[in-house]
Amino acid sequence: MLSYFCKLGLKMKIHCFSQKMFCTSALSPLPLPSRMETHLWYVLPNEVKSQSLLSQYVDLLPPPEKDHVFSMRGDELQKSALLARALVRTTISRYQIYSRVSPRSLVFKKNAHGKPEVIWEQSDDWHPPQLHFNLSHTSSLIACGVTVGSPIGIDVEEKERTLKNNILSFAKRYFSCEELEVLSAISDPEVQRHKFIKLWTLKEAYVKALGIGFSGAPFNTFTIRFGGANPNPEVLDSAIAVVPLEKPTNLTTNWQFKQLELADSHYAAICRQNDGLLGGESMKVIVRKTIPLVEEHCVPRIDSIVRVDELT
Amino acid sequence: MVSFSNMGRSNLPLSFRRLQISCAAKPETVDKVCSIVRKQLALKDDISVSGESKFAALGADSLDTVEIVMGLEEEFGITVEEESAQSIATVQDAADLIEKLVEKTSA
Question: pTM higher than 0.80 for the full model?
Fold first, then answer.
């Protein structure tokens, strides 16, 4: 436990893409993402072992959230639920928003479809930031995406996750015809399974970004298309687009997608609005691995375009 | 003359059958849902599952929930519209919806 307090006093030098970043204590403020950036934070439950740290997380929560955490069946699920709440509260508080925002003071509500949002304090001399967030978790990784000026949806899934049902039967029932064709065309079962998981996370990220969920946008009412004239197999997200299949439709298409791998163990999908600022460029994502209240570090990502010497 | 001690539904007039649809699902239906849920979530034996159990509290994520619904569709020969997925929070919700859909299918 003492080592955690020692780490709080350390200055950490961090390389992130070609930038050098200094990270002091875990609680020093961070600039909000620009309108062109998406921040993705994640925590690995296996790395959080200290009971006293977990108690600190419980202390951050209002009674209804505590009740929810302890209503989960079993220690692991309780820990996961607790980390998810701790992650979202500490992450939002890390940004230079307002001196009175702290992990404990944040208030959340759910929209009509159950998507969580922040309720900002209203005051005459302060305009709340247009901060959007979205959470996703598996038993082994919990992630929180943050944007400014655009709704965001994220979904994470273990790469090795298997379906209890047959993949093509599942896709026939729930996905679009085009997606079923794409999956059917893959002969290697492992490759097919990985493609399924990538498709699932992208579709989930989209309906979560829209804020209407699976019920509001059944998965067979839109196709996720991997396209572009010359898709580069090393770039996971080359030209991913959403194509609604019904007319008329309440599904909008001005959305941008990013697919990436986290911790070598998970596929993550991010969906945010494409407001034309980025032109044809792919989504700029800054990934940070964290232990809430304790430490964080940027995770450098290898995009196909970045050369090795640019990382130093 | 209708005998109220008769537990078999087929002897009751249609109006009585409709009344039963709005009551809780049969225990056998709830049990079947519990076993499909247990299998999907690979629950340890010490975790009990009953009508009141919430899918989310058992650790079901969105993919698990859809897989469970697909398993229920196959087991009961029904189609559950995706729009209904949001209304299913507990095992009991699923069982009640199944019986409603089974009635519709057989009517």
Answer: yes
